[in-house]
Amino acid sequence: MTHSFVNKTEQDVSEIEGFLNKFYPYAQKRLQIDKPVTIILKSDSKNAQKILGTTGYYDPENLEVVVYVDNRHPKDILRSISHELIHHAQNCRGEFDSSPATGQGYAQEDEQMRKMEMEAYLLSNGEDLMVFRDFEDNIKTERNLMSESTKEDLQNKIKEIVEEKPQDIVPEPIQQPEPRVSDHEWYYKNLYDKLSRKWSK
Hints:
Elements: E1 3-8, H1 14-31, E2 37-42, H2 45-49, E3 56-59, E4 64-68, H3 74-92, H4 106-109, H5 111-125, H6 131-163, H7 183-199
Parallel strand pairs: 1-2, 2-4
Antiparallel strand pairs: 3-4
């Protein structure tokens, strides 16, 4: 099932959207999501000022994940999306069919919702399956492997150039300059050559 992305903020969230487009297929397969979902980013400056403000929520009736973005690191926003997607997966399994409570204190008062919330914390970024953390580590591992591979290729190329000894190139012999002779020596050598030619006939 596909997902749609809605930016209801005045911020540039293209980087988050691009990353989400890679993360969602991974989460969909991992969580066995079989219903479409709309992921909405919202801005709320008053909520952002509250130390216990809302970071996001899931709307099971409209199949919507809503996450607030003000004053948050992109990675933290993605973690919230991951958390709310767990609730969407729970909805796909029919766990919202009994209309569990979602009001204030629902995680303490409603036993079913408490279990669902625990699953969302554990699966999104906790110590169990860690959907987002595993995805993040996979990306970092791939980047490191690519970096090491590029580095090794470069080292091999440098080594090949340094050690290259072409077999088909024969170095030209170094020509030594002829020794310089005096005029006196040149005269007698020339005279000797002429006389040798004349008397050798």
